[in-house]
Design brief:
Structural class: alpha+beta
Radius of gyration: 18 Å
Largest sheet: 4 strands, antiparallel
Strand order of the largest sheet: 4-2-5-9
Helix content: 10-25%
Number of strands: 14
Strand content: 15-25%
Shape: globular
Number of helices: 8
Length: 229
């Protein structure tokens, strides 16, 4: 029942996986590299790059390498994430950190003109008023990319729509943050919203704390929505 679902979202209860919540989006049938290149034209975009599949790349030394970015034509970016061995395709990631799609602040809405055509292929889910939208981002990557364990620091609910491929999500409760060892405020690493734990190569001294933090797991398939309060 949409009314009950909207009420649950409003109360910010635990995360909710909505199977098929975005299944009607035209993007599911349309978004291929060739279509997106044609839709967006020969624009240049900034994007993250790493030495492995993790972003940011905290396995290397120095902030410049941890948060490395490149800039180039969209066609080159899609070639990098769409062709070649998986070990190379996972090194690149485009997110709203580089270029937002829509941003609403103080009643003013701004749409990035280069990415604006993407809006014709997505729909605001009928779960809340469109006026509640704060930011809309587009994420593109090859297979195998992992975002480092982190929390979003904008204080907003998050509604994540999966258009293509699949995504495994592991979420932890805010009250368990001490067990996840975020980088300290004022330290050499400015990403204080990120954990020091490498979940794929967990440091022995941190493994017991990670194991003690209850995890909520979900796997998103094309057309699914994940609500994160």
């Amino acid at each position: 029942v949409p009314e009950l679902l909207a009420e649950r979202l409003e109360r910010a209860e635990p995360p909710l996986l909505i199977r098929g919540g975005a299944a009607s989006w035209p993007a599911l049938a349309r978004w291929t590299p060739a279509y997106l290149e044609q839709l967006l034209g020969p624009i240049e975009v900034p994007y993250k790059t790493a030495t492995s599949n993790v972003h940011p790349d905290f396995r290397v030394e120095g902030n410049a390498r941890m948060f490395a970015r490149e800039r180039g034509p969209l066609s080159d970016f899609f070639r990098k994430i769409g062709t070649g061995p998986a070990s190379e395709r996972c090194r690149y990631l485009f997110t709203g950190d580089e270029q937002y799609l829509l941003r609403r602040r103080a009643g003013q809405t701004r749409i990035d003109p280069a990415l604006a055509p993407l809006l014709s292929d997505i729909e605001t889910p009928p779960l809340f008023s469109p006026e509640r939208l704060h930011t809309v981002w587009a994420w593109f990557s090859g297979p195998g990319v992992r975002t480092w364990l982190h929390y979003d620091n904008n204080g907003c609910h998050n509604l994540n729509a999966q258009v293509s491929g699949h995504k495994r999500c592991v979420l932890y409760r805010p009250e368990d943050l001490p067990l996840l060892h975020p980088y300290p405020l004022g330290g050499s690493n400015p990403a204080h919203n990120c954990s020091r734990i490498d979940v794929e190569r967990t440091q022995p001294e941190l493994a017991s704390d990670l194991a003690a933090a209850p995890a909520w797991r979900a796997e998103l398939m094309p057309g699914d929505l994940l609500f994160i309060p």
